[in-house]
Amino acid sequence: MPSTKLRNCIPTLLLLFLFCFLVSTSHGRRIRVTRNSTYHSDNSIVYLWPLPKHFTHGDQTLSVSPDLSLSLQGVGSNSSVVQEAFERYRDLIFKSWAQVGSTSEYDVSTLTVLVSSDDETLQFGVDESYILYLDGKQSGSIVGGATIEANTVYGALRGLETFSQLCVFNYDTKAVEVYNAPWYIQDEPRFAFRGLLLDTSRHYLPVKVIKEVIEAMSYTKLNVLHWHIIDEEAFPLEVPSYPKLWKGSYSKQERYAVEDAYDIVDFAKKRGIHVMAETDVPGHAESWGVGYPDLWPSENCTEPLDITKDFTFEVISSILSDMRKIFPFGIFHLGGDEVNTDCWNNTAHVKEWLTNHNMTTKDAYQYFVLKVQQIAIDLNLIPVNWEETFDNFGEKLNPLTVVHNWLGPGVCPKAVEKGFKCIVSNQGVWYLDHLDVPWEKFYTSEPLEGINNTDHHKLVLGGEVCMWGETADTSDVQQTIWPRAAAAAEKLWSPLEATTVNNLNQTILPRFQYFRCLLNNRGIAAAPVTNFYARRPPTGVGSCFEQ
Amino acid sequence: MPSTKLRNCIPTLLLLFLFCFLVSTSHGRRIRVTRNSTYHSDNSIVYLWPLPKHFTHGDQTLSVSPDLSLSLQGVGSNSSVVQEAFERYRDLIFKSWAQVGSTSEYDVSTLTVLVSSDDETLQFGVDESYILYLDGKQSGSIVGGATIEANTVYGALRGLETFSQLCVFNYDTKAVEVYNAPWYIQDEPRFAFRGLLLDTSRHYLPVKVIKEVIEAMSYTKLNVLHWHIIDEEAFPLEVPSYPKLWKGSYSKQERYAVEDAYDIVDFAKKRGIHVMAETDVPGHAESWGVGYPDLWPSENCTEPLDITKDFTFEVISSILSDMRKIFPFGIFHLGGDEVNTDCWNNTAHVKEWLTNHNMTTKDAYQYFVLKVQQIAIDLNLIPVNWEETFDNFGEKLNPLTVVHNWLGPGVCPKAVEKGFKCIVSNQGVWYLDHLDVPWEKFYTSEPLEGINNTDHHKLVLGGEVCMWGETADTSDVQQTIWPRAAAAAEKLWSPLEATTVNNLNQTILPRFQYFRCLLNNRGIAAAPVTNFYARRPPTGVGSCFEQ
């Protein structure tokens, strides 16, 4: 797509020209830097990301004991999910050298977490709400200390993340403190589907790296990992029913065993994150034929998959069955994008099949998609399909379909009008590989835009930012995702009123830069906020908070 | 330095122009990819980095039990350093889901580590040698299994790293295997000083990030972290004797408490890595005056430090004393580079002092450096100084001085001729912020070049790659350092014969690409090897092993 490439190229070149002359390559040069030491002293700025739905706060500073203990109560008090999460957050909140067994007085010594259900089922729409009270002992408050109340363990996880962001290490007192207390927070997400697409086909991402992405997602309350595992370039996943499929991997080492996939799903579940797998058909599937060349219509036509063979649908059905065991999420992505059917017409036996079935290639595309949808539905899955399926055959799609918008704006309004559910990923605003889309655009893109009938609002499940992997590998994936994905995370979690602001630079930017630095402190390679292009280096020296 | 900037700019622009047109921004495009599955089948390529000094191997494949246990023997058998390292390596070698309690037969079930000394002192020149035997039980070998023998725990650590690289996960058998066994390795470094400079002044790097850099260093057997903590832009370190010094930090949060520094030293020590601190004077010290403006000659002359005041030297002396407690490494960097003394001449009281002392500014520069050297020596430290000190006043330097070359080639030959010790960091080849220096140049730069008198060879302690921080922050520091620093790591560890090769692309490149992928698998954001410029994204889709 030349115009897209030009669009990306020329500004890049101009910026790089400017960048080059700014960068010093010596031991350093003298720059008068500004020093901003006033975080938290302005208590009109709330340094929580994403912004909670409801909150009040005060102006007191509370100290938090390095011996902070967890008191887990309620029906869900046996939850290892919460206990393990508390240990992870302890490590994030306190320095490794924090003094335990101290006899000093602290305002907050116990974190009480009350979970009213012991059901740890993680399915779409699970209750993620929580209440967080944080108060000093001396206030006479009934609750005192810090308390999180939630209906499920997953609400408790969201509360723990917010609590961890309230805790700030003070280098003067060398203690962890909470500013602007007491806090009363009542929080829940605006959208239930707050996703990140991760493409592990264009570049293999090691399991350790996928886990680091999931960990970072949990810091922003993103809750769906859309795992785009397979595509035309590589088939890295083990499929036990058809064990030659992963011969399509780049190499024997760039693979995911079934156990790796279970491991990732489990890791995500412990953070309240769903994993939505994708099996993209009939296009984007060239790699399937490395192990099973019969799936290719011919040696010269390696995509889309061969529609004429039962074998093709047997393989798809087995892949879905095998994946159904691994991925408990009830929503499954079947792809269906960018289907170029030209070589169906150019391959003799396919042409013959089309003629015999009285189908155009467009009819055949529809037939393929609907057939696979039914396989998924028979496996008790709700199918998601990329928007071309809706754009091309609209109401023929199974009514359960979730339409995944990506090509541009204005699609979800049409989809919900026809009664379909929808997910927003409009590439002009939420594609992370589009490096020229700034954080402000990620932040201000409203999923319900254009949907005037409020009854239809509930059909928009939410949205997803997409990290396509053509130029994203282990070396640069995290700083391509962050911090822009976090901007979308707030749009998806926080109330519409909170994220509809005019003066982003005054109201949102300081909070966003602070959060980027929090990600850095947690070891996440979030890129500078104020760069023109994504994933660029800082243009020069300076404080994290000002870049 | 305009010429340097132009040099960096124009090729960058041309490359970016080319890059832009190659990068796709759509859902993907069809590319025929090559699939290389033949790692380890060619047993003439040894996939160990850095290459051990002596080794022999066979052609057998051995399986390694997921229950692999450590048998720690010898005088050093109580070593928690080795036990903790073994646990870390277990996590790197085995999948988190590896089946324990398996009744299957494995060739290697125990790793025996014999350490002949219990002295865990980590000082320059500590014995890092080790012997590693890896053999199958059935071979009738006396030792069988896997054994590491070392004189010190630090040799054992080096052996553990090598052992971990021999262990490869096989996705077909889902077992960890060792190829081309049996292995007999006898290894020790060529140079004792194998360093990486990390600049945490131009950009603050969180403690977690510094630890990740240290962890990655341990994978390459680099053993000195030259911590360039402070510079003109920011003073992030706590100095208890002069607590206002860190008011020069970028912000209250971008600081290192004394306990953070101890923590980093301890983390490094557990990996056999020295931390060499730097206090760069009299230049590069503008940030010191934020807390103590008396250190500035005047409001308009904020660098170099005020030579006329006892206070200046009291502060330096106290900084060195405070740091001496934290940093046990006997070698300490005193900087001394890029000293622009113009404003000494332009500030009245300094000019007067120079006149009274009958000194030119150059004399004064020398006076300052030598005075500070003596302070360090009185603290039982061996001083390192950047080469300008040698270039400017040669033999006036204290005889204990280690000259740190950086400006270009040919300096160490002159320094060792005068009896000084030397460290090589020639910026044309070993500066990591010079993005146009490719891995081949890092690999082939010979520290002893130009030193014909072999008696002088021992005066070259080793070398250091330098990660200056002007454009390196948490978001991009790791992929700027790696993999090029690893190329230098092999030059510094492995024998000269091994690293002096003509056909790098055939002999070294496959091993280097493999190692880069190993770093990725361990979660280290090492950049593609074959890019023209450092820290660039992959230019397109593909296998890690081919990028």
Automatic annotation (TrEMBL), chains A, B:
Lineage top rank: taxon: Eukaryota
Active site: 338
Source organism of the structure: Rhynchospora pubera
Protein family (similarity comment): Belongs to the glycosyl hydrolase 20 family.
A matching Pfam family: Glyco_hydro_20
Signal peptide start and end residues: 1-28
SUPFAM superfamilies attached to this UniProt entry: (Trans)glycosidases, beta-N-acetylhexosaminidase-like domain
Keyword set includes Signal: yes
A cellular component annotation (GO) from this entry: membrane
Name by which UniProt lists this protein: Beta-hexosaminidase
GO biological process, one term: glycosaminoglycan metabolic process
Start and end residues of each Glycoside hydrolase family 20 catalytic domain: 191-495
